[in-house]
Amino acid sequence: MKILFDQGTPVPLRDYLEGHSVNTVYEQGWANLENNQLLQVAEEEGYDLLITTDQNLQYQQDLRGRKLAILVLLSTSWPRLQRHAQGIRQAVETMQTGEYKEFALE
Questions:
Q1: What per-residue string of b and e applies to 67-102 under the rule 16 or more CB within 10 Å gives b?
Q2: 39, 106 from 52: Cα distances, Å
Q3: Largest Cα–Cα distance in the chain?
Q4: Rounded CA gap, 99 and 80, in Å?
Q5: CA of residue 64 relative to chain centroid, distance
Q6: Under the phi-then-psi rule, with left for phi > 0, alpha for psi from -120 to 50, and beta for the rest, what region is 55?
């Protein structure tokens, strides 16, 4: 799966997603793109999944008809997310085309 980390997504999470191609918005040179442009470019570049911490994305953008799946992490804290890294990996493995899912920390 080709995965894009949005700004705010802790980069060390990449190490828990072995077997997937993971890039960041910054690495791609897309840090200045607005959300609607970012979603469009990510789809055009063949990304399957966007992992973001932007909890407002679903309210700011019309996500209907998107090919890109979106996983929203409900925290930006790497120490908190690291404790749930395997659960995040499992969520990634089950994402379907165009699906929107939030990963809540317990």
A1: ebbbbbbebeeeeebeebbeebbebbeebeeeebee
A2: 11, 18
A3: 35
A4: 24
A5: 17
A6: alpha
Q: Select from 21, 55, 52 the least CA-distant residue to 39.
A: 52
Eight-state DSSP code of residue 49:
E
- For residue 44, give its domain range: 2-103
pLDDT tens per residue, the chain (106 residues)?
Answer: 999 999 999 999 999 999 999 999 999 999 999 888 999 999 999 999 999 999 888 778 778 888 999 999 999 999 999 999 999 999 999 999 999 999 988 6
Distance, in Å, from the CA atom of 81 to the CA atom of 48, rounded to the nearest integer, reads: 21
End-to-end CA distance of the chain: give it in Å, rounded: 26
Say which DSSP state 11 is in.
Answer: G
What is the total count of domains within the chain? 1
